[in-house]
Write a structure and sequence with these properties.
Layout lengths: L13 H14 L5 H11 L6 H10 L9 H22 L4 H20 L3 H23 L7 H12 L1 H14 L4 H25 L8 H6 L4 H21 L7 H16 L1
Helix pairs in contact: 1-4, 3-4, 3-8, 4-5, 4-8, 6-7, 6-8, 8-9, 9-11, 9-12, 11-12
């Protein structure tokens, strides 16, 4: 796997990822046992931790041991977990609990952000604004006469791509990698996030949710699936292109490998 550094092309991120897990445990701790248990339910290890991974790989282009790197990774994951709880509201789960736990996680993310400086706060706020806009676009659907496929891709760029984009940007800036690298990694992160979501739609579509194959044909016919798979390839190609001017090395290769993983998953 990319994250453990068993390949010569891959940076060893095990210690940093362990620090992120520790940070998530601390951030989900509360004096109210119910809150702690509910918040930790989604924060338990086992997932791919894509967003923290993007932060840590982006930091490889600067000083990966800079003090703001791990907190940035914790912040983006807390934000992601909070949005998952708020998604439960839209899917008619236990709405009051989901809202409160989501808000608790946002509060903890905000506290960490305050220690990263005003620019990090602004960047995360802008990403969250885009994310919420994407959720609204998904809920309202395309306006009459507008292309539903274009609307879906625009929705994903905001709802999913915004947080993966800011993950790359925060990692680069926290490590001192510089503006050009941060810009490139933000583009990469957004395209990768969209591609990954599209690949997930192909693997296991959510009942009642719009997916690209359905929007392309009205059902999940073979030509529509093939066309949707081509869109995954296009998004990954755009992500790879963003890496072109980054310094060569294990981090860049690992980011490219993530594109291959997304394509294989789709």
């Amino acid at each position: 796997m990319i994250v453990v550094g068993n390949h010569t092309r891959e940076p060893d991120l095990r210690a940093a990822l362990a620090a992120v897990e520790d940070g998530l445990v601390g951030a989900t701790r509360s004096d109210v046992p119910f809150i702690s248990e509910a918040a930790r339910h989604l924060a338990r290890p086992g997932g791919r931790r894509l967003r923290p991974l993007l932060v840590l790989l982006a930091a490889q282009f600067g000083d990966p041991d800079a003090p703001g790197v791990v907190p940035s990774a914790v912040v983006v994951e807390l934000t992601y977990l909070a949005t998952r709880y708020h998604d439960d509201v839209r899917h008619e789960a236990n709405a009051s609990v989901a809202v409160l736990i989501g808000d608790f996680l946002f509060a903890r993310a905000s506290r960490l952000l305050a220690g990263l400086g005003p620019r990090a706060v602004r960047l995360q706020a802008d990403a969250f604004k885009r994310l919420v806009s994407g959720q609204i676009l998904e809920t309202t659907g395309p306006r009459d006469g507008h292309d539903p496929v274009a609307h879906h891709l625009r929705t994903l760029a905001a709802r999913t791509g915004a947080l993966t984009a800011v993950s790359g940007r925060l990692g680069a800036l926290a490590s001192g990698a510089g503006e050009e690298i941060a810009d490139a990694l933000a583009v990469y992160g957004e395209r990768l996030g969209v591609a990954r979501h599209l690949a997930a739609e192909l693997r296991s579509p959510v009942q009642g949710a719009p997916t690209l194959p359905v929007l392309l044909s009205g059902d999940a016919s073979a030509p529509a699936v093939a066309e949707a798979r081509q869109e995954v390839h296009r998004q990954c190609a755009a992500a790879r292109k963003a890496l072109t001017d980054l310094p060569e090395g294990p981090a860049r290769e690992a980011l490219a490998d993530l594109c291959d993983t997304v394509i294989q998953d789709g």
